[in-house]
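call fold(seq) -> tokens
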Amino acid sequence: MATYLVVRFSAIGDVAMTIPVIYSAAKQNPDDRFIVLTSPFLTNLFQQQPSNVEVHGIDIKGDQRCLIRLNLYIYKWMKQADAVLDLHDVIRTKAIRFVAKMLGKPVYTIDKGREARKALTRKENKEKKQLTPVFDRYEKVFKDASLRYSRSFNSLFADQTPDIQPITSVFGNKEEKWIGIAPFAKHEGKIYPLDKMESLIEKLSKKEGVRLFLFGGGGSEKETMDAWSAAYSNVEVVGGKLKLNTELVLISMLDVMISMDSANMHFASLVGTPVVSIWGQTHPYAGFYGWKQDPTNAVQVDLACRPCSIFGNKPCYRNDWACMQQITNEMILDRLEIFLS
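ret:
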């Protein structure tokens, strides 16, 4: 039996994308042990994990922020590991790899394809083509470590039906089509204009037999969602009412999720819920599409300037955000129709 130390601290969506790969590898290597290190908040994503997977939260923004303290803290797991699988390749994980190599541990690291990403998003002479999906990049790390691997993950809840009582106690029984909407993202280049989103919510709220659930954070996001919920019927605000692990259960009950290129697309993918995703500055070509999601459900417009960013955090070259402004409500409603019929 071998023990593998698997490291990916952030971001939320990227950590979510490790789960299908880790679970698939663990199930096909049942005699091996997988110790996963990630951010404390994200440990709640790892539900119903295989028995040979254990997950630990590492506070890289607090007590373990210092690289020396980080390595001292994880040393107990490092000693147990036969190899380190780095799915992140950032300064912190490079420090972990350095210590692993000093201890004689083999190290396997993700190739992020940084040069290909630059070519895809540069302003002039773009190389506009599909890059290696992130799932494939994660999988290669496990294969490089000579682990047996094939894709077997379908849903966090594939083997055991989750308890829906915490959902029904808040929102009642499901008696209509449930549509999730996650209108926000970390960066502006990934966010559908809020006036257009409100218009879409208004249209959907008027459809018979439909109930909408809005997902987002606190602060101004919650204020916006609360305003929409007050203005339109059959619109529920999820933010602040459920913990992350319970939110995943609610997402599994949805008929479809409308999401930006954001973490909620990956949350829905983890529980087998179809996603209609909206893409602006970013593009599925970069390799961050949801696990087993239908590529035809990506709503986007073809512009010469797209994609201009991997993360949606760059200023608009055109100063008009055409990549989002040109996406109409009708384009989104057209993709939703199959899930509402």
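The mean pLDDT is 97.
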